[in-house]
Model the fold of this input.
Amino acid sequence: MKLSVIVPCLNAAETIGAQLEALTNQQWDQPWEVIVADNGSADGSQAIAERLRARLPNLRIVDASDRRGPAHAMNAGASAAVGEALAFCDADDEVAPRWVAAMGEALSTYDFVACRIDLEKLNPAWMQRRSPQDRDVQRYSYPPFLPHAGGGTLGVKRRIHEAVGGFDESLPYLQDTDYCWRIQLAGTALHFVPDAVVHVRLRHTLPGVLRQALHWAEYNVLMYKRYRRFGMPRLTLREGMIGWWRLARSLLRVRSKADWARWVWGFGWRVGRLRGSIKYRVVGL
Done:
């Protein structure tokens, strides 16, 4: 089975070199390739990838600049791939040793998999926390629904990817959650691969934390509106108001930079859900 590792990239000059270096150190006894799907970088990301081609002879760079967004870059990479199986990893993360082998071996057994996330290696101490994907796939809890995983941690058989139409390119955020749910609703389970580890880089500034929380929360509301008809429980205004009350109370316990990061995330999450509720005309606080 040939495995295609797809790395979507947009202006990742500061980090893509480390990710590709990590891939040069991978060993697996089956054929595999690496595809950098460049989404229109203007910072020299392609040149960095080109310099590593000699050390990563199975590397190809494809142009995915005709439409912005990680969903399009991942789909473009998948379209260019020759493997029977696809594995996605982000340009700002780093795969751990044996990641390729562990993902490839898992995909020889299962059709849809997700690897383990480590948050310690690439993040300062004040940002470090336990990942929701360090022991299993992520459990969606508000409201409860199907499990999901980050896009840069997924592996899938190519035929499954094509059967669901790939990632939804209309979604600038949470295209990975939507992808996981569509595949599972079509009848394919998502399996966890603890032996495959990716070191994930978080936002390292409070404004960055706030922006990410705002975007994720807004599109969580859209996911709620889309998937209620598939059995996702309904949210109430009371649940949203309780969330705001808890956020206000938690401000009294803020002492450190790590506390501020958690609070800013919670604030961004609440504001994003409010914005999403207004934008998509649904109570999703």
